Amino acid sequence: MTETAPTSTMTIRVTPETKAQLGRLAQATKRSRAFLAGEAVAHYVAREVAIVEGIKRGLNDINTGNLVPNDIAMEELSAVITDISASGRG
Questions:
Q1: Residue 12 near residue 37, CB atoms below 8 Å
Q2: How far apart are alpha carbons 40 and 63 in whole angstroms?
Q3: What does the pLDDT look like over 36-64, one tens digit per residue?
């Protein structure tokens, strides 16, 4: 028997088209609409949290002066691209 993580119920509103598509996907994958919707929300939230955390880190870098001038950053990127192209990996 597989143990599942605890869950909580949430009600959301979607368009009839989205609900129908979710139903078709559920049928095709032999999963429930609730499972697929939960997975979609979990992935969306994880992605958005990562974006917000990245923005916070960037703002912290700005506030602490942890910056690289654009011309130096571009030189470093160009060097990496050149090295990869020369090695045949790119």
A1: yes
A2: 35
A3: 999 999 999 999 999 999 999 999 999 99
